[in-house]
Amino acid sequence: MERKSIALVAHDSMKRELAEWVDWNWEKLVKHHLICTGTTGKMVEKTISAHHNVETDKADITLLKSGPLGGDQQLGAKISEGDIDILIFFWDPMTAQPHDVDVKALMRLASVYNIPMAINRSTADFIISSQLFEEEYTRTIRDYTDYIERPLYK
Questions:
Q1: pTM of the entire structure?
Q2: d(Cα 44, Cα 58) in Å, to the nearest integer?
Q3: N or C, fewer C-beta in 10 Å, the chain?
Q4: What is the mean pLDDT of residues 69-89?
Q5: Residue of 12, 57, 72, 146 marked catalytic
């Protein structure tokens, strides 16, 4: 099994749904490093500890700051540094968020670095049930050399 770093994020109105998804998939998730924004991470810890002796089995969960307080940027930095393998973000498309620009930037970085990203439960189900979830997977990343080396002044 290939151990992965999985980012888990949920907007407030989607936290219950993510908790249900984590509850359903906790046995697979605890085999990996989970990286969560603040309040989502506390909810993930609580959900997993309901089934799983965290002290004994050392579930590997990293809590970042709350999304609006910088957690989205922390997660984006981890993506750009190659520290995230999968992004599960239960996003609420019906509610404006005070940090919408941060959320958009996070999704853009996941796309730039070709990170599998679920923004709803169905896609998260497909990702976690894929045989690639447990195997080593080397994603391709577009070569941005031309962009990096472009002339800035004419």
A1: 0.90
A2: 14
A3: C
A4: 95
A5: 72
Q: At what angle do helices 121-129 and 15-29 cross, to 10 degrees?
A: 0
Across residues 13-27, what is the average pLDDT?
95
The structure tokens listed for 54 are 């965290």
Closest residue by Cα to residue 18 from 4, 49, 39, 3: 39
CB 63 within 8 A of CB 38: yes
Would residue 60 show up in a list of annotated catalytic residues for this protein?
Answer: no
